[in-house]
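Hi V.,

Quick status before I head out on leave. The structure for the redesign project is tokenized and pasted below; the design run finished overnight.
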């Protein structure tokens, strides 16, 4: 599966952004999906994951209650709604696909999008 993320930009602290990830291929619903983020000099970190059907999701503690992941298997898309953004959320955000039901470990992901930059100003 090939992935293309979009929706990043500059937002003030407390604001919201909605990231989207479009997937190509007819087997999108066979993949668990995840969002990760990375800042220069640091490892790519887990943000959120959603199961193949979209019935289950999990989040990093740092974003729980603020971010919501969802997917539309009919449209081959996965979305990350980010609310109450903080300057520490600034990063390049990546969507990724795993053959597992879902996963928080980046090593379990086999397909990655190109990343979209989110900048949160204080």
């Amino acid at each position: 599966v090939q992935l293309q993320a979009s929706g990043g930009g500059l937002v003030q602290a407390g604001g919201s952004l909605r990231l989207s990830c479009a997937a190509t291929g007819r087997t999108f619903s066979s993949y668990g999906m995840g969002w990760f983020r990375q800042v220069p000099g640091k490892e790519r970190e887990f943000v959120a994951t959603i199961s193949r059907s979209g019935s289950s999701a999990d989040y990093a503690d740092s974003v729980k209650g603020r971010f919501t992941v969802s997917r539309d298997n009919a449209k081959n898309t996965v979305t990350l709604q980010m609310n109450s953004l903080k300057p520490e959320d600034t990063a390049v955000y990546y969507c990724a696909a795993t053959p597992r039901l879902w996963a928080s470990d980046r090593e379990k992901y086999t397909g990655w999008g190109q990343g979209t930059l989110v900048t949160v100003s204080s």
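Above is the designed sequence. The mean pLDDT is 96.

G. will cover questions while I'm gone.

Best,
W.
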